[in-house]
């Protein structure tokens, strides 16, 4: 606002009055010389005009002062911050609306009250000291105060105390900073919780100011490597020198990508040299906290996590996996592990070599992993669509848990040589819906079985063993074994073959197994007394009952009857055979699934 100023001098005021005076001359007053009357009248008129001009100026100045005072009062009253006018002793003389609201008291009631009664008691001496300093030095003083609300600390304010003219007191300005203080406390609490969480997790924290090159490390991080605060310079080069030589190049490339803004986040594993000379594996993760306008990093923050234990465990697992694969490869059977979709997860060396040897199969083991087992079955079996379909259906059902297992015998003819294989599908019971498929070469078993079950061959070998027992007085037992009638199905050959396998698993190498009749098997046990024959017969009965046989997806439970005879006076195998067959028939007549021993006098059931 521009104010009109008074004339600079009396002459100037007189000059302006004369310019405004425009009247004709008047008659002389009585008793005055004729020459002085006009001059005197002119002086009086000019003085009158001077007074009028001064009055106009004063009226205009008063209006402007009143306007400025009103504006100042409005600015004081409606200011967004709290204002207090205090006397030299800190008594409130005047306050604005925000101040009244801040202290929750009408402004008329605030007058003549000491200001320090509205702040916490512990800060009243501080307030008095502040007033003394402001009055003595004539400068503004600042501090933070806590106002009382209903007798409790409730509001934080920033106080600015400005001294007025000597003896006129102070102008106190208060700005509410309660929310800022609350956020600062919350930030400190969050930082403290974050620190506790990192300490509990064993993480170390680092903060890199790219512009200054300074890297701050938490004490937890330095403790992780055994260094004290004074033993580490805190520069990036110092940290790089602690890295394993094989990890330094990857670290530098990762940092360059992050600093350039190409990759604002990173996670790398590296080995760090500890104070004791050992290395620890560390997972280093970081992110750009502040970036320039061009995207380059100005500040990075991150953590270090000790993963040495995990790395050692991974190394152990690698060794165990290698040992597992070596043991897997040493199996003579050809084995593949399938997932729940029938895809190959793992194969052993025997299967890989077998597939490579097939003219219509795979040329190499490459590509086996992830291959559907149907392709491998095609390579294994050749052009046998019915068997292929049956095998794949069975594999799928075993994986899904529909079947407990599956076996398939098949022949493969190559270069006029016939080979027999047994495919066995077994579920892996670890909750992963996987299955193991093994192939066993049973060509020799087929040859041996065919030879041992040849009736003429068997009788010759049995007769020779009986002659040897008679000549040297050795004990000899004979078992005559037959399937019970209620176990017969339309798959009799399959049942008999499986029965032979069960029995062969219980016999000694010197024992002789053969078939003298269509539905009966006979076993000659050289150098075996009666109790040994009884024990073997009982084991055969229990094992056969406990091992169901899969016939086209149907489990068939077998039971057998056994007639047993120990040689006494028999000089021929035919005589011994006749007594054992009588005991077998008696076992069947007694309900089957049992053993009858023909002793010297009469048969004995047990």
UniProtKB/TrEMBL annotation:
<dbReference type="InterPro" id="IPR035965">
    <property type="entry name" value="PAS-like_dom_sf"/>
</dbReference>
<dbReference type="InterPro" id="IPR001610">
    <property type="entry name" value="PAC"/>
</dbReference>
<feature type="domain" description="PAS">
    <location>
        <begin position="190"/>
        <end position="262"/>
    </location>
</feature>
<keyword id="KW-0808">Transferase</keyword>
<keyword id="KW-0597">Phosphoprotein</keyword>
<feature type="domain" description="GGDEF">
    <location>
        <begin position="474"/>
        <end position="600"/>
    </location>
</feature>
<dbReference type="InterPro" id="IPR052162">
    <property type="entry name" value="Sensor_kinase/Photoreceptor"/>
</dbReference>
<keyword id="KW-0418">Kinase</keyword>
<dbReference type="InterPro" id="IPR000700">
    <property type="entry name" value="PAS-assoc_C"/>
</dbReference>
<dbReference type="InterPro" id="IPR029787">
    <property type="entry name" value="Nucleotide_cyclase"/>
</dbReference>
<keyword id="KW-0175">Coiled coil</keyword>
<feature type="coiled-coil region">
    <location>
        <begin position="41"/>
        <end position="68"/>
    </location>
</feature>
<dbReference type="Pfam" id="PF00990">
    <property type="entry name" value="GGDEF"/>
</dbReference>
<dbReference type="GO" id="GO:0004673">
    <property type="term" value="F:protein histidine kinase activity"/>
</dbReference>
<dbReference type="InterPro" id="IPR000014">
    <property type="entry name" value="PAS"/>
</dbReference>
<dbReference type="InterPro" id="IPR000160">
    <property type="entry name" value="GGDEF_dom"/>
</dbReference>
<dbReference type="Pfam" id="PF08447">
    <property type="entry name" value="PAS_3"/>
</dbReference>
<protein>
    <recommendedName>
        <fullName>histidine kinase</fullName>
        <ecNumber>2.7.13.3</ecNumber>
    </recommendedName>
</protein>
<dbReference type="Pfam" id="PF08448">
    <property type="entry name" value="PAS_4"/>
</dbReference>
<dbReference type="InterPro" id="IPR013656">
    <property type="entry name" value="PAS_4"/>
</dbReference>
<feature type="domain" description="PAC">
    <location>
        <begin position="266"/>
        <end position="319"/>
    </location>
</feature>
<dbReference type="InterPro" id="IPR043128">
    <property type="entry name" value="Rev_trsase/Diguanyl_cyclase"/>
</dbReference>
<dbReference type="InterPro" id="IPR013655">
    <property type="entry name" value="PAS_fold_3"/>
</dbReference>
């Amino acid at each position: 606002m521009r104010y009109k100023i008074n004339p600079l001098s009396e002459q100037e005021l007189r000059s302006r009055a004369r310019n405004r005076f425009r009247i004709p001359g008047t008659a002389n007053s009585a008793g005055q010389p004729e020459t002085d009357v006009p001059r005197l009248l002119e002086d009086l008129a000019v003085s009158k005009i001077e007074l009028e001009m001064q009055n106009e100026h004063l009226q205009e100045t008063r209006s402007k002062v009143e306007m400025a005072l009103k504006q100042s009062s409005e600015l004081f009253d409606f200011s967004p911050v709290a204002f207090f006018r205090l006397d030299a002793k800190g008594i409130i003389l005047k306050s604005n609306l925000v101040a009244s609201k801040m202290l929750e008291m009408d402004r008329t009631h605030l007058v003549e009250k000491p200001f320090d009664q509205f702040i916490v008691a512990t800060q009243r001496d501080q307030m008095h000291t502040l007033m003394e300093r402001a009055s003595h030095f004539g400068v503004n003083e600042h501090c933070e105060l806590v106002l009382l609300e209903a007798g409790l600390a409730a509001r934080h304010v920033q106080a600015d105390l400005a001294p007025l003219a000597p003896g006129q007191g102070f102008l106190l300005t208060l700005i509410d900073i309660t929310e800022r203080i609350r956020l600062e406390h919350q930030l400190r609490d969050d930082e403290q919780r974050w620190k506790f969480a990192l300490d509990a997790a064993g993480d170390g924290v680092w903060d890199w100011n790219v512009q200054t090159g300074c890297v701050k490390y938490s004490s937890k991080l330095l403790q992780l490597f055994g260094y004290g605060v004074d033993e580490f310079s805190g520069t990036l080069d110092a940290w790089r020198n602690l890295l394993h030589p094989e990890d330094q190049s990857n670290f530098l490339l990762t940092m360059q990508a992050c600093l350039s803004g190409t990759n604002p986040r990173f996670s790398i594993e590296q080995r760090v040299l500890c104070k004791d000379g050992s290395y620890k594996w560390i997972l280093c993760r970081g992110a750009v906290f502040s970036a320039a306008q061009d995207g380059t990093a100005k500040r990075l923050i991150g953590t270090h996590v000790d993963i040495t234990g995990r790395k050692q465990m991974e190394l152990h697992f690698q060794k165990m996996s290698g040992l597992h694969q070596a043991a897997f490869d040493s199996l003579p059977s050809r084995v593949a592990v399938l997932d729940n979709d029938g895809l190959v997860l793992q194969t052993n060396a025997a299967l890989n070599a077998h597939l490579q040897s097939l003219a219509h199969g795979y040329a190499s083991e490459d590509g086996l992993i992830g291959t559907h087992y149907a392709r491998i079955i095609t390579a294994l079996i050749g052009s046998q669509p019915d068997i292929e379909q049956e095998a794949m259906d069975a594999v799928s059902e075993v994986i899904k848990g529909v079947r407990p297992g599956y076996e398939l015998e098949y022949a493969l003819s190559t270069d006029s040589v016939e080979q027999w294989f047994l495919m066995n599908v077994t579920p892996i019971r670890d909750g992963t819906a996987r299955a193991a498929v093994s192939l066993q070469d049973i060509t020799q078993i087929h040859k041996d079985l065919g030879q041992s079950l040849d009736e003429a061959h068997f009788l010759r070998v049995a007769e020779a063993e009986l002659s040897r027992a008679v000549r040297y007085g050795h004990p000899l037992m004979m078992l005559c074994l037959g399937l019970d009638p209620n176990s017969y199905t339309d798959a009799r050959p399959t049942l008999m073959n499986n029965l032979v396998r069960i029995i062969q698993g219980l016999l000694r190498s010197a024992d002789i197994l053969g078939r003298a009749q269509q539905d009966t098997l006979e076993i000659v046990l050289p150098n075996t007394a009666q109790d040994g024959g009884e024990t073997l017969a009982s084991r055969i009965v229990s094992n056969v009952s406990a091992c169901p046989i899969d016939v086209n997806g149907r489990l068939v439970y077998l039971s057998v009857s056994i007639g047993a005879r120990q040689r006494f006076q028999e000089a021929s195998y035919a005589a011994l055979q006749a007594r054992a067959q009588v005991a077998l028939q008696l076992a069947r007549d007694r309900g089957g699934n049992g053993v009858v021993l023909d002793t010297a006098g009469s048969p004995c059931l047990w």
